[in-house]
Structure to design on (332 residues):
């Protein structure tokens, strides 16, 4: 069966050819991903992330943007390897939500607040 | 200039300077999760805020100018071009642009063939030569359609390829990356290598555009 990532040759709409600079958040995730996968740490080995992305399932794959997918798979792998725990992550997410709310940096889309 | 700095003792990395950007707002659970992972990894000493900053800087420093240097040399030095086409990694290394982790295949546009690169499965891209990929390269629309109807997709980029020209689409993989050598524009015979480099755009090395014509 074709996975959600395997889109070559499928029908799709026009390409949005406008380019925008990567946001700082995207650059952070890109950098963090490279660091946890480097030779020193080897937590998320090079090449392995793609398999995790492909295993996200169609619904998740199609609703998340590119670096959100990487975030999802990075957290999975950090949990599986016992480097972080679910409780730690959940507590930190709430802490950051409260902090961003206080500084006016939070502008959650529909349905996002419920995931926290 | 963006500075990523550890501040306030909690390891939160954010902009310290420059005007606030619209995309600095946090819109989704996964964005918060990303910040959370980073802060937890810093707290545990697995990565440092400084390493994250340096990695961002290092990646920002790689621009398509590297690829342009290779293309301009290929335009002006036939022997180099032959070596580059035979062994992309060796050719790139000659110009101090090593491709360390993957095989590099250079593909040359000719009057009969136009090359385009894509990664249908994810986002494999010659980052060491072109920097970070543009957002559309990673989009479902580009990945899905360029392999089936490249002519129509190129038109969306404003690039018309004549019917007599064959379009070859190269699907990148985790192990193989491609670099398109666009055709050298007419009227550039007297130009120096560094003048030629300015004509070689990122999009022309992906193959969704031609190299720029001088004066345009």
């Amino acid at each position: 069966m074709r996975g959600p990532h395997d889109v070559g040759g499928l029908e799709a709409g026009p390409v949005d050819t406008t380019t925008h600079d990567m946001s700082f958040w995207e650059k952070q995730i890109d950098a963090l991903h490279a660091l946890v996968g480097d030779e020193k740490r080897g937590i998320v080995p090079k090449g392995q992330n793609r398999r995790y992305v492909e295993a996200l399932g169609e619904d998740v794959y199609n609703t998340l943007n590119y670096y959100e997918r990487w975030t999802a798979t990075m957290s999975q792998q950090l949990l599986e390897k016992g480097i972080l725990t679910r409780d730690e992550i959940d507590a930190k997410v709430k802490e950051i939500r409260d902090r961003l709310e206080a500084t006016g940096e939070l502008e959650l889309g529909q349905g996002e607040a419920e995931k926290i | 200039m963006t500075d990523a700095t550890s501040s306030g003792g909690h390891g939160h990395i954010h902009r310290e300077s420059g005007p606030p950007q619209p995309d600095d707002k946090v819109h989704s659970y996964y964005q918060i999760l990303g910040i959370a992972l980073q802060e937890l990894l810093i707290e545990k000493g697995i990565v440092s805020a400084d390493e994250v900053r340096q990695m961002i800087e290092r990646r920002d420093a790689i621009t398509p100018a590297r690829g342009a240097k290779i293309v301009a040399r290929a335009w002006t030095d036939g022997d180099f071009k032959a070596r580059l086409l035979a062994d992309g990694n060796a050719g790139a290394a000659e110009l101090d642009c090593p491709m360390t982790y993957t095989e590099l295949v250079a593909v040359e546009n000719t009057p009969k063939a136009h090359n385009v690169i894509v990664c249908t499965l994810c986002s494999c891209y010659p980052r060491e030569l072109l920097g970070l990929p543009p957002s559309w390269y990673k989009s479902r629309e580009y990945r899905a359609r360029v392999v089936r109807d490249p002519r129509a997709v190129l038109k969306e980029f404003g690039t018309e390829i004549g019917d007599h020209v064959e379009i070859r689409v190269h699907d990148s993989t985790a192990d193989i990356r491609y670099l398109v050598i666009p055709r050298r524009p007419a009227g550039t015979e007297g130009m120096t290598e560094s003048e030629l480099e300015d004509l070689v755009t990122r999009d022309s090395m992906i193959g969704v555009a031609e190299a720029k014509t001088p004066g345009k």
